[in-house]
Amino acid sequence: MANERERDAHSGTETTGHEWDGLKELDTPLPRWWLYIFYASIVASIVYWVLMPAWPLVNGYTHGILNQSDRRNVAVEVQALQTARTPMFERLATADVAAINADPQLQEFARAAGESVFGDYCRTCHGAGGVGAPGYPVLADDVWIWGGTMADIEHTIRVGIRSTHPETRMSAMPAFGRDGILTPAQVGDVSEYVISISAANSRLHADAAAAARGATVFQEQCAACHGATGAGDRAVGAPSLTDDVWLYGNSREEIRRQVELGRGGVMPTWEARFDPGTIRALAYYVHEMGGGEPDAPPAPAATQPTAADASVAPAQSTNAGGGATR
Hints:
Cytochrome Bc1 Complex, Chain D, domain 2, two-stranded antiparallel sheet, 13 helices, disordered C terminus
């Protein structure tokens, strides 16, 4: 018959009628096991569509009979983890450095929790291990603008720097060149003076004549914050200019640019996002990076009056009372 398909003489399988350069395509049927798996996968997909979230809709998706939600499950697991950690965070919130270091379990918890928070929220700017970057200070050295005790670090984390917190740490470096406070020549002179009083002088070699002229400008414009010797003042967030640590670059051009433009970065406040225990853990982790300073010792407790002191108490009380009424 005209529509009868040709069979391959060797295998006896019908051909498709396609031929290329004498090679004929066989119409070999698929193995039955493959077809069974294919049909089973179709059935399984239909069952999955019915049971699990699968199809997107205009304002949502099909939830399925089982109402499965990975997001909800993760939220439950996170809440369970936070509940399990709450007692440790509560202990941490009331512990100082000495108490943490005296308790190996609390110390390990504080370090692990602080490292986790630092990696999630701080590493982007301050780098892994607190190595810093231009415009973002190094946290692993012993150079601090606002103080390196654990209390200082914790306060900085809590209120931020130039942030929206009402108690934020605030300092402002004037743009002496851009705002016309100093002439370009004066900016250059005071920049050379800053180099001359810093440890960078050994590599940058300040111009002696320019530095001499810049000394007068420095005392008039800069000493109020940075101090007469450039040692800085942590109370107002003025960094020391005597070392060779520079936030925005250590070249002559960058030092001059800082005087000219008066740049200042922003660190967000974390008080609204982190609980006190988490802030304490983060402060401890930063403090232990390598440059943390010891906290001030606690003030001595007031001594109780002795019997001998009690004998003169009435006279002292009368004097105190008279002073209080004035």
